[in-house]
């Protein structure tokens, strides 16, 4: 069934998301936080608890799925194509209720597929805290005569004439997807071998793209922001290849002017990058 292009511009009703320190710790563990990152997983850590800013994708999930339902995108057909996040201020770790609205920003024709862009704005106490843009690919519903997606340039392209300024190699666990899904993305593609096989992944359930996104963000914070997560102001990436729980991720960073960082993430032992057009802005 074709997507409902008349829904471009549609904005969802406010979606509430209440969090506590446990919500933040569960997310941090889902994106690979280790015990030496105690301040992200322990509510009484010396100096106070901290939060990884990529948590901003979590409260927006409900509104995004509501927007996708409004355009007629069926869950088994969607693939996450890319993600951007902008942080307006650090999230208080004491807990609270966040409010998100999602807007269908565009529906584009990719011949065999369609691309849906969903923008979200999340507030806390009526003040902006996170903005996101989700690029969602919907399989099998292209060819409807709609517009092609606009050309976009990577804010921080990877330099071709030099080696990276830093490299972080980190293994995911075989249970990584099962842990990450506790933060809200319960798509069985990431848990059920039979569902994964029907989707073409005979090797087994794949890791959430946003889990890989989080692993790379931790590497960026460690190497480009001096370990200070509050300095990560904006971050984006395209998801190119699947990652399986247990894979080892290799993230390379290139320091650029103006506090920008170009990033690429690959899986050890495989040639093709899994995150491309990746970039970050460090404050």
TrEMBL record:
Domain Peroxisomal multifunctional enzyme type 2-like N-terminal: start-end pairs: 17-140
Name listed for the protein in its UniProt record: 3-alpha,7-alpha, 12-alpha-trihydroxy-5-beta-cholest-24-enoyl-CoA hydratase
SUPFAM superfamilies referenced in this protein's UniProt entry, alphabetically: Thioesterase/thiol ester dehydrase-isomerase (SSF54637)
Naturally occurring in which organism (per UniProt): Sorangium cellulosum
Gene Ontology MF annotations: (3S)-3-hydroxyacyl-CoA dehydrogenase (NAD+) activity; 17-beta-hydroxysteroid dehydrogenase (NAD+) activity; enoyl-CoA hydratase activity
GO terms for biological process, alphabetical: fatty acid beta-oxidation
Residue ranges of domain MaoC-like in the record: 161-252
